[in-house]
Recover the amino acids of this structure.
């Protein structure tokens, strides 16, 4: 395997002050929350499709009937959604820890005048 080629004008030295770091960390939390919202929405749509209640923006049903043809199919879909949501909850907890650490870091940013 070969090494990647990097342009010559890229420097590994990054010069950010504490306020810029705090803002970047806050932005990463926001983007991760946004992506988790998309995951939750897709899981809701998965259940709606299984039940046959998924509608498009025009208000018409996407599928003519439920995709789950029997109770076992519906329970399998529900288990899949539950596993995914458990993973989302775990990620939410990690993001909360990250936010708490950032909040602890903020007084050092504001008290030093940066």
């Amino acid at each position: 395997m070969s090494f990647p080629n990097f342009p010559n004008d890229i420097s590994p030295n990054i010069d950010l002050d504490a306020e810029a770091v705090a803002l970047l960390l806050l932005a990463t939390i926001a983007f991760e929350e946004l992506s988790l919202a998309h995951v939750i929405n897709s899981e809701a749509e998965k259940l709606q499709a299984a039940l046959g209640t998924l509608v498009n923006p025009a208000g018409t049903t996407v599928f003519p009937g439920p995709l789950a043809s029997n109770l076992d199919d519906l329970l399998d879909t529900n288990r899949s959604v539950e596993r995914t949501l458990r993973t989302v909850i775990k990620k939410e907890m990690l993001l909360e820890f990250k936010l708490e650490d950032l909040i602890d870091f903020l007084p050092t940013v504001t008290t030093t005048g940066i």
